[in-house]
User: Fold this.
Amino acid sequence: MSGEILNRVSKSKLITLDLEDFYPSGNRVLFDIAPWLYQKLILKEKEFRISVDKHQWEQYAQCYVALSCSVEAIIPSWAYLLLSSKLAPYAKKVVVGNLDLLETTIFSEIIDNLDISQYKDKPIIIKGCANKPIPNSAYTVLVKKLQPAVKSIMYGEACSTVPIYKKK
Assistant:
């Protein structure tokens, strides 16, 4: 034995998939319509439309926007549709909900469009730790997408993984 230290991880056929690598650039914005409600309770169409028309929508260029209302009020569906139509020329994505739903929607679309042919019959590690806000649901969507094609799926780091799936 030569005493040479071998890095078996780097020589293995394992492919590490890091969802952080797919994280799209662009600010995430929570757009709260509560300030545009009469007494933060009632949506009055005329006043609401005036607020919409006066708003500077271009500030949301290349942003991901979640439309929400922080107070308990009945918001008609058309209000969100109107806001979406104003955001459409600028925002990368608009959802009705919170920032978690926005991130989940973004990653669901990314994973849906992911070409997995390069992973066919290969052992995959889904990297666990991320510095960016990757929703837990993104990992489950990724497993569902990969499982029919890959040899195996593990979670974690190459040095310490948790087995998730192995083709029989």
